[in-house]
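tool_call: predict_structure(chain=1)
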Amino acid sequence: MKVKCKSYFPLWKTIVLQVEKLKSELEEALLSEKQLKHKVDHLKDVIASKSEELHIMSERVQETMSSEMLSLQLELQSLEQGKTDLEDRLHDLQYSKEQLELGNSNLTNRVAWLEEEKEERERDLFSFCNSLEEAREINRDLQVQLDHALQQAHDFPSQGNSLFAEVDDRRVEMERQLISMKVKYQLLQKQHNFTREQLQRVKLQMATLLRMKGSQGEHDQLERLQNMLQQKNGEIEELLMKLKQLEKSMKVSENSRELKLSNASEDAEFENGYYIDLLQMKLENSDKEKENLKNELSLQRMKALFESQRVLEMERKLSVTEKQLEACQSKNINLCVLLDELKIKYEPQELMGKLISLKKDARDGPSDSFNISNSLCESSLPFQNKELAQETEADLKTTLQIKSMNVVPLPPIEQRGKKTVKIEVKDFDRTAMHKKIENDAELLQTTRSVSTNMYVQDNQRRPASLFF
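tool_result:
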């Protein structure tokens, strides 16, 4: 009920204020109505008196009057007119006085009502202060009781050694550990989010840089591989032509041998058996030499295939190392950009000093500043990429040396009569092998020169201003 009364109290006050205002307005309206009625009655009286005067004047005008009487009559009328004006003014002043008195009375009533409201508010405030002090005292008593109860609850020795006390201790420890773990988890989550955002930014930057450089590198590598494929196809065609020629020569040699055998059988009656045995020994020796040459040819082919495979592997390694070099360069650029941002954030004074010194150096000589920027670019490249490039160059050198070592000149064979075909085949094979070795060496040199040109072009394309 008290709460309801408190909620209705402001409504009641507003209604009372509205009623008071309406009362004051009603009193003012009644007073103005009364004044207007009084004015109307007065004007009616004036009109009646004026009509009577006019009637009297008209009657007197008809009668013969003297000029003095007329003048006096006019003066009297003017005086009466002034009197009526003064009376009207007096009535107006009385009306305004009554209105002011009414407004003053309304204001005094309102002041009295406001004073009463103020007193009521002061009483309410005093009662609220008293209730607040009582509530504070009650709160203090309850806090003291709660502290006492907590002390009794934590005072386990007084309660005795019980399992409940140990369980409570463990519960408190676990709660503390849980709170600490929650705090650590929140911190780690924030760090994880921050690092993930940084990684995403770095990945985006890396992707853009690799797209910019990967398009050029892939195009050059495709051209290089296409050139190599064309060269290998040409070599395969040459080898096929050589095989056909060798087969033809073998057929010719076999035909000649058959003819010789037939001739030997015909002339065997006229010649000694010793000469036949000697020819057979020579034929066997030539067959053995032929087999040896075939074996050497197969070995040389295997070596050439092995060397070509090794060259391809080295080129793959070169392409992988170039990609790694580009990735490392892009990482280096990103790290330099991040370092510049951090320097701009935390060490702007040092950067300003460096810029001033660079401006002075540029004024003294632009060539010195260009050399400094080139040296900084070279020093900023990672050492791992240099080591990889050196390893690839060393591997290429070793392959060339192995090729030169593997190509051993064939031992000279004594030229015998009626065996010119075999000697010509041997010389042809040797020249073909030398040509193949020279082609492989030129291919390796071209690949090496292309890779070095790519590396130099990449270093020249990279702007030196990124590292400052």
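agent: The longest helix spans residues 163-267. Proceeding to next step.
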